[in-house]
């Protein structure tokens, strides 16, 4: 878990974008409570918070402390977007949806003393994000982040049942232009030198030709980067070569499950590719690009045999890393609706929506058994013998290839 936290130690890009949308005459302080304490005695005009579901209750606590002092409190982010009426009970203002369309209007209304309780996009998923400003990366100069985040796109065409992204950002894939993305990379290099860049997109390579053109430009910049994508990148040798040459270190690929029946309930597109998972992972890693495989355990057809098969599959594939979670019924997802309607939703506070706490009544196992199975999968992965085998495999792959300026 320490390794996972370190890999994802990156700034809140949404907040830095909101800061960039704020007029220059405003003084802005960015506080990441994971790394810095909040001074509740500070006198602010507005306190804005961005919260995921597992953070929202802490967000309410913070907002209440400032609200008691007469400070205007605002919450945005994914939970506020899918549950605006709930969030509105705890703060003065809710920003639901993409801030580029709502934050400037709120600030103008606030200045006039006429602000509303909830600001929503009229047409979610329609914003032209090529108009979005470069985030205020200068505000995090004093933070020791291991990676700095860039988003090149919003929206995802893969409508997975457990994901709320399609509802929040829409199913239409929208992308910044390459000049805009390169400008953001150059700003990061200017401020942070050779830090890792994390492309935070749900699926970065949907627009394949534009992505290849982008990688050709990144190749000139001597950067190291990581990203989230899907298994189809294994079909494209030109893309993989460009990824390696431009400094890609590893990618997160959502495989979800190796049990066909379990996978069928998540996404048909992934089910159709299940038989080629092993070869696809080997293909990507043959370019010296690590694959962090993301799995969900505790789906309706998962039992102890699926756990054992998953452990074996992970060992055979020599993954760079793994991310194994329990099925989480996030608000806004189709999966939550199904679990609620079938009476299988376990009533626990939002703080339990961590991906690792079991929040549904599993079909074949108990909640404790699901958590123990997830633990066993992780334990098998970090076994010293398995770790040494993976290390030797990656050394071999890096030594035998020749893809230019890749940093190993």
UniProtKB/TrEMBL annotation:
* CDD domains associated with the record: Radical_SAM (cd01335), radical_SAM_B12_BD (cd02068)
List, alphabetically, the InterPro entries matched: BchE-like (IPR051198), Cobalamin-bd (IPR006158), Elp3/MiaA/NifB-like_rSAM (IPR006638), Methyltransferase_Class_B (IPR034466), rSAM (IPR007197), rSAM_horseshoe (IPR023404), rSAM_sf (IPR058240)
Alphabetical UniProt keywords:
Iron, Iron-sulfur, Metal-binding, Methyltransferase, S-adenosyl-L-methionine, Transferase
* Species assigned in the record: Lutispora saccharofermentans
| Stretches that traverse the bilayer | none
| Listed PROSITE patterns | B12_BINDING, RADICAL_SAM
Residue ranges of every copy of the Radical SAM core domain listed in the record? 142-369
The B12-binding domain sits at: 1-117
Name the UniProt record assigns to this protein:
B12-binding domain-containing radical SAM protein
**The keyword Iron appears for this protein:** yes
Name the cofactor(s): [4Fe-4S] cluster
Question: What domain of life does the native source organism fall in?
Answer: Bacteria
Question: Which PANTHER family does the entry link to?
Answer: ANAEROBIC MAGNESIUM-PROTOPORPHYRIN IX MONOMETHYL ESTER CYCLASE-RELATED (PTHR43409), BLL1977 PROTEIN (PTHR43409:SF7)
């Amino acid at each position: 878990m320490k390794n996972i936290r370190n890999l994802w130690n990156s700034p809140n890009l949404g907040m830095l974008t909101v800061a960039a949308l704020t007029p220059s005459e405003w003084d802005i302080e960015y506080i990441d409570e994971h790394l810095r304490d909040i001074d509740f005695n500070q006198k602010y005009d507005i306190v804005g918070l961005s919260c995921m579901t597992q953070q929202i209750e802490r967000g309410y606590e913070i907002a209440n402390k400032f609200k008691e002092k007469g400070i205007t409190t605002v919450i945005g982010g994914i939970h506020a977007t899918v549950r605006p009426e709930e969030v509105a009970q705890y703060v003065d203002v809710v920003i639901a949806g993409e801030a580029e369309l709502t934050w400037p209007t709120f600030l103008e209304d606030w200045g006039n003393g006429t602000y509303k309780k909830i600001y929503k996009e009229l047409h979610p998923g329609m914003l032209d994000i090529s108009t979005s400003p470069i985030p205020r990366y200068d505000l995090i100069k004093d933070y020791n982040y291991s990676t700095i985040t860039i988003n090149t796109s919003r929206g995802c065409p893969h409508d997975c049942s457990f994901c709320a992204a399609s509802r929040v950002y829409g199913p239409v894939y929208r992308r910044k232009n390459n000049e805009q993305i390169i400008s953001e990379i150059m700003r990061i290099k200017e401020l942070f030198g050779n830090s890792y860049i994390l492309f935070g997109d749900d699926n970065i390579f949907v627009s394949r030709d534009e992505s290849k053109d982008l990688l050709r430009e990144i190749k000139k910049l001597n950067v190291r980067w990581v990203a989230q994508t899907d298994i189809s990148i294994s079909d494209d040798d030109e893309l993989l070569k460009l990824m390696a040459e431009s400094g890609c270190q590893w990618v997160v690929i959502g495989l979800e499950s190796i049990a066909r029946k379990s996978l069928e309930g998540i996404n048909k597109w992934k089910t159709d590719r299940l038989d080629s998972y092993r070869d696809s992972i080997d293909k990507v890693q043959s370019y010296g690009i690590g694959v962090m495989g993301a799995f969900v355990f505790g789906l309706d057809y998962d039992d102890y045999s699926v756990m054992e098969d998953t452990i074996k599959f992970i060992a055979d594939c020599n993954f760079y890393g793994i991310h194994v979670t329990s099925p989480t019924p996030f608000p806004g997802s189709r999966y939550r609706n199904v679990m609620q309607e079938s009476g299988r939703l376990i009533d626990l506070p939002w703080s339990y929506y961590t991906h690792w706490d079991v929040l549904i009544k599993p079909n074949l196992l108990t909640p404790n058994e699901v958590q123990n199975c997830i633990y066993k999968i992780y334990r098998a992965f970090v076994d010293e013998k398995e770790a040494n085998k993976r290390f030797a495999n990656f050394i071999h792959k890096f030594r035998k290839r020749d893809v230019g300026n890749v940093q190993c």
